[in-house]
Amino acid sequence: MASPKSRPRDGYPGRALSLILAIMVALVAIMFGTGNTKPRLGIDLAGGTSVTLRATSTDPKAINAANMAIASSIMLDRVNGTGVTESTVQVQGSDEIVINIPKGTNSTQVADELATTAQLYFRPVLAEQQQVNASAIPKSSASPSATGSAKPGATPSASATHPQLSGSGSASPSASKTQGDAVSNALKASPSASASPHASSSSSSSAKASSSPSAKPSSPAAGGTVTGALGGSVPPAMQSEFNALDCTTAAGRESASKAARNSKGADRIVACSKDAQNGTIWTKYALDAAAVNGTDISGASAGLSSQTGQWQVNLSFDSKGSGEFTKTTTMLASKTSPQNQFAIDLDGQVQSSPQVTSTIGGGQAQITGSFTQQDAQSLSNVLSYGSLPLSFEKQEVVTVSPELGGSQLDAGLLAGLIGLILVVLYSVVYYRGLGLVAVASLGVSAVLTWSIMSLLGGTIGFALNLPAVCGAIVAIGITADSFVVYFERIRDELREGATLRPAVRNAWPRARRTILVSDFVSFLAAAVLYFFTLGKVQGFAFTLGLTTLLDVVVVFLFTKPLMTLLARKKFFASGHPWSGLSPERLGVRSPLRDGRNSRRPARPAASKEA
Q1: Are 551 and 476 in contact (CB under 8 A)?
Q2: In sequence order, what are the beta bridge partners of 267?
Q3: Which helix (H) or strand (E) holds 358?
Q4: Does residue 561 lie in a domain region?
Q5: What is the pLDDT of residues 316-359, one digit of tens each?
Q6: β partners of residue 299
């Protein structure tokens, strides 16, 4: 019975080459499939503005990781509200926030906008109106409902958008996470206050109210339809501003937010909802002067209601805020929708507009509604930020024009190209046939590096800045160094009398150990730079670490298996003068012969006599 075939001494190089080829094909396919065919460029290469802000506070304990994270989230909303895309907001160190905005935005305006402390107020609602963006509605949409899509010209009923809730805090499902919430007493349940028909002259947002002769619909957005009705005690000047506001456009929402940020708490403002209901219905508000300031909140947290098991936001106020909150909720509870609503206004965006059904005292309250955990935590974060004594100072504003960024990119690419050409020329001249192996390995490394950087730009937002390009250039030398180590080990084996196939096999363990130690040192340096430095140096460290890891992959899965296959070819095994392994170039007098067990010492060179 024949014994099973033993494993070849040279291994299975074809398997390793097939594996790395499959990896390359998969990465390139994903790259083109996702559309991320180019690495994302940083501000210093693509052009843009970088603003560095430093947090200051009278309370040093307020500057902590949690509060900085909330502040960065609000700043991201601000910069996105200006219509700038692909911006990044990153907390740097313990007290700095760096905002990167690509492609030439007015740096002074951006810095001033972002450095302004967020303004959070509780404002009574004077009037509200829904606006439908018809262009965002699919043609196959059905008529609107509380959970369905909106139809132009239709007015959602009041019960769909603002369900009446009891003072016990039980919640009915709401159509929007920013509307239909309810403020209830967190300490003691009280009966819902019924609205007196004579308590207010406001009109509800029902379909019947929308046909009232006193209703003054606002100007519809281009391609959109305005629904709802304006009612209540609204000054004529404010009513005109309310009518002109179009929340279905980004420009209209940003205009309202900017005007609100420039106003004071005592001013009446118009504002838009933070999000669109069902993706199509925006709500605009006429808001009274602030009744409670965000700084009067002593705490806010998200949690599950013990009564309903639904997510809710728990609020607590300081002594000043508690008195104002009790006074205002007493007044709102006697009114009808929409004037029984308490809008939570942050920078001119209504985060939520809960209805008040009873007087709330004791400085404790709950906001309940159809919250998900994420919704409740997001709203609690907004409320928490309103109580933070944080302000921000501009530390640095750097603007890079696209032309300057393009010239820097060209210079970096030219430097990389020159370095690559020099490495290729040296490899071909010195190693000849072996130099082609080095060139092929560099090509594989380039494909892997390009595809991975392109995919990282689309997935985690990795941006290739100028230091990162420098890291890629340095990586060319690191990769070439690995080839040199392996080739020289093979040549040492040949000088000692081995033939090529045993030389390739025996040289690998020693070369492998040296390559791993060298790459580990490079990767360790990159890791230290990445975790203990800030700013653009991290881009250099990230690229250096990534290319170092790829060097190990290429050497193990491509260079070594390819050399194993080439050692079986006569051109290399016979020591052809252009193979880079000829006896003359190695200082060996006898010609190289292929064999399985050949390993004899080299003859000492004869000394010359004078």
Answers
A1: no
A2: none
A3: none
A4: yes
A5: 888 888 888 888 888 888 888 788 888 888 877 888 888 888 88
A6: 316
Lowest mean pLDDT among 28-42, 148-162, 357-371, 443-457: 148-162
**The total number of structural domains that make up the chain:** 3
Separation in Å, CA 105 to CA 50, 53, 82, 406 = 10, 17, 10, 17
- CA pair distance 160, 145, nearest whole angstrom: 7
Sequence-separated (6 or more) residues with CB below 8 Å from residue 210? 155, 227, 228, 229
CB 494 within 8 A of CB 592: yes
* Matching residue, tokens 């262009």: 135
* Residues 36 and 50 occupy one common structural domain: no
Any long-range contacts for 452-455 (C-beta under 8 Å, 24+ apart)? Answer: 452/27, 452/546, 452/550, 453/39, 453/543, 453/546, 454/31, 454/36, 454/37, 454/38, 454/39, 454/40, 455/27, 455/30, 455/31, 455/34, 455/36
* Residue 34 CB partners (closer than 8 Å, separation 6+): 455, 458
- Residue ranges making up the domain that contains 280: 120-140+163-393
* Helices 402-431/433-459 angle, 10° precision: 150
- Residue 69, token pair as written in the block: 């994270």
Identity at 11, one-letter amino acid code: G
Q: Per the confidence metrics, is the pTM higher than 0.90? A: no
Residue 7 lies in a domain: no
Terminal-residue alpha carbon distance, the chain: 67
